[in-house]
Design goal:
Blueprint (H helix, E strand, L loop, with lengths): L3 E4 L4 H12 L4 E4 L16 H16 L2 E11 L5 E2 L13 H11 L9 E11 L6 E11 L15 E3 L4 E2 L5 H7 L1 H16 L1
Helix pairs in contact: 4-5
Protein name: dITP/XTP pyrophosphatase
EC number: 3.6.1.66
Subunit structure: Homodimer.
Length: 198
């Protein structure tokens, strides 16, 4: 049996979060960096789960191995859950954090603090040959600030305020963030089901 798991990302930092988990099961972790031939996989789903599954299933089929994919984003209550699955390309251009943050602040311009509730969501899916996909998710509740705070993290982190820590995600160290993030919570869920699935 091929004891390799591919994390469907080019983000080495993200892959590190999973490496420790799979090391314990004797699996070698690779990323899309190791398979440049795969290229971009279109995400055309209407939910985080559909997008994650699309990615994982396409790669698993091509390489005939176990693949873990995630789809995550920010859901703002006052904006009916937007930017949601469009979080990375909210302002039009994929991955332009500054433009996405500017658009979010503009959309929330006249919204009072108590109505700026938001949720960071992460769906993980594990797909492998001849197995049912395993879905898990994690969430972190917070508020959207009126101006960015902190230089750590990426994406919407400087605007996302975590009340029980009294800091924005952008003010947290990597270690702090990796303990409480939506991805960390999804990974905890994954750990609970991993034994049986593998």
């Amino acid at each position: 049996m091929n004891k390799t798991i591919i994390i469907a990302t080019n983000n080495i930092g993200k892959a590190k979060e999973f490496k420790n988990l799979f090391d314990a099961y004797g699996y070698k972790v690779k990323t899309l960096h190791d398979f440049p031939e795969i290229g971009e996989i279109p995400e055309t789903g209407n939910t985080f789960a559909e997008n994650a599954l699309q990615k994982a299933a396409a790669i698993s089929e091509e390489l005939n191995t176990i693949v873990l994919a995630d789809d995550s984003g920010l859901e703002v209550e006052a904006l009916n859950g937007e930017p949601g699955i469009y979080s990375a390309r909210y302002a039009g251009e994929h991955g332009n954090d500054q433009k996405n943050n500017e658009k979010l602040l503009k959309e929330l311009e006249n919204i009072p603090k108590e109505e700026r509730k938001a949720n960071f969501h992460c769906t993980l899916v594990l797909v492998g040959p001849d197995r049912e996909p395993l879905f898990v998710e994690g969430n972190v509740e917070g508020f959207i600030l009126c101006a960015p705070k902190g230089d750590n993290g990426f994406g919407y982190d400087p605007l996302f305020y975590v009340p029980n820590l009294e800091k924005s995600m952008g003010e947290l160290s990597n270690d702090e963030k990796n303990k409480i993030s939506h991805r960390a919570k999804a990974i905890e869920q994954l750990e609970e089901h991993l034994d049986g699935w593998l």
